[in-house]
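for the recovery benchmark. tokens below, seq after
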């Protein structure tokens, strides 16, 4: 009779084996045909499938990140976009990948993770401002260049507040 540890080891070995086979197939196909734009989304899909199979939210992190990057690269390469819009489309796609992490985690791993909304939200904000056009780019310039000294002060203030709050508990 197999112990629970042996069954877990067998399941982990089969998951790793499936991942290696799938990665090998993707890389072989990428070598044989011009499928470069599909490599990252396919790898993301593998991570997502493993996460669904194992009910482990950790797999959804690389799935979301690689999926967002892959989607952004595919859209920028295939859509007839003006050059000044490519960055915005890419960042919004990347943000969508970050937003997929909490969604997949809640649906398939029964875990609530909220931290991916922070980098995803920042990317979505910057991407949206880029898509707005000159006004958005001017605002980004104001926020990050002309008033760039404010951000370090904001981070220091948040850090101090967190430390003081922790000390009060």
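predicted aa per position
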């Amino acid at each position: 009779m197999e112990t629970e540890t042996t069954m877990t080891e067998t399941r982990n070995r089969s998951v790793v084996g499936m991942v290696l086979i799938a990665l090998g197939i993707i890389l072989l196909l990428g070598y044989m045909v011009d499928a470069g734009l599909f490599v990252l989304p396919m790898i993301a899909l593998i991570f997502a499938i493993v996460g669904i199979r194992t009910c482990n939210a950790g797999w959804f992190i690389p799935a979301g990140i690689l999926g967002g990057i892959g989607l952004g690269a595919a859209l920028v390469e295939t859509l007839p976009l003006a050059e000044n819009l490519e960055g915005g489309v890419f960042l919004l796609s990347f943000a969508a990948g970050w937003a997929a992490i909490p969604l997949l985690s809640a649906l398939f791993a029964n875990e609530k993770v909220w931290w991916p909304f922070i980098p995803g939200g920042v990317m979505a904000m910057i991407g949206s401002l880029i898509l707005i056009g000159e006004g958005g780019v001017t605002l980004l310039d104001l926020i990050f260049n002309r008033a760039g000294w404010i951000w370090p002060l904001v981070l220091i203030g948040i850090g101090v507040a967190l430390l003081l709050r922790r000390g009060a508990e």
